[in-house]
Specification:
The protein is α/β, with parallel strands linked by helices. It is about 35% helix and about 15% strand.
């Protein structure tokens, strides 16, 4: 099922996992500045516009877990679904040194329009899926190997969490046992008030884990499939072992 704001696959699958991808797409709807944020095409292919490779991992991982998946269908630069309502970065005007021309003078009415047509429908759909009894959330993101002017990021995978590390800790242990360079709340901390995990997992005590994959490892279909195949059995095992 695909709508303007989101795509859902496998809605009737029996698996307990719900695989989410907040930053799946770099799409700019035609009703937002004519479908163009004023950035060069090359910038719209960068991590500033979406999580490169995350959508492919999400779809493949959900297939392997026999679980539903929900993916956003709009660029994070249009409105960021992984930011809370009070977060000023929900509508980004500058990201990793790049000014977003169509956002520079976007007023409160324009922001509200994007929230109503994209942000709210995405979260409403996610909430409905998450409400299934026994749901466990796995959020899939990706990160760039290096921000402009910053040191290279050495991790292959990061596991992010806030005050619920019931799945995060065993996942990190399992990843390190595979020999993967694994970040503990790296490359950034795993909690922002009102973000997707906060809203759909932490507030309800729902088990969850957020996975960040370095995007050069999942830039093509082969890498996306590989990492989904690596992660699926680990996720199944840690859920069974924790008894959650």
């Amino acid at each position: 099922m695909t709508q303007d704001a989101f795509e859902i696959s496998g809605v009737d699958r029996p698996g307990r996992w719900l695989v989410t991808c907040d930053h799946a797409s770099n799409r700019v709807p035609a009703w937002v500045n004519g479908g163009d944020l004023g950035l060069p095409a090359a910038d719209m292919e960068r991590h500033i516009a979406y999580d490169v490779g995350a959508a492919g991992v999400t779809t493949a991982l959900a297939d392997l877990l026999d679980a539903p998946a929900i993916l956003s269908q709009f660029s994070r630069l249009v409105i960021d679904p992984n930011r809370g309502p009070d977060d000023p970065t929900r509508l980004m005007r500058l990201y990793d040194g790049t000014i977003i021309p169509a956002n520079a003078y976007a007023d409160a009415d324009e922001k509200a329009r994007r929230v109503a047509r994209l942000y709210d429908p995405y979260h409403d759909a996610l909430a409905e899926l998450a409400a299934r009894p026994g749901t466990v959330i796995c959020a899939v993101h990706s990160f760039t190997p290096q921000l402009r002017g910053r040191a290279p990021r050495p991790w292959e995978i990061g596991v992010l969490y806030a005050n619920d590390d019931r799945l995060a800790r065993p996942l990190m242990d399992a990843c390190r046992a595979q020999g993967w360079a694994t970040g503990d709340n790296e490359p950034y901390l795993g909690h922002l008030p009102g973000d997707s995990i906060d809203r759909h997992a932490l507030t309800d005590g729902r088990p969850n884990v957020l996975i960040e994959l370095r995007n050069d490892l999942i830039a093509d279909a082969a890498g996306q499939t590989l990492w989904a195949q690596r992660l699926a059995p680990i996720l199944k095992q840690i859920l069974a072992d924790t008894g959650l």
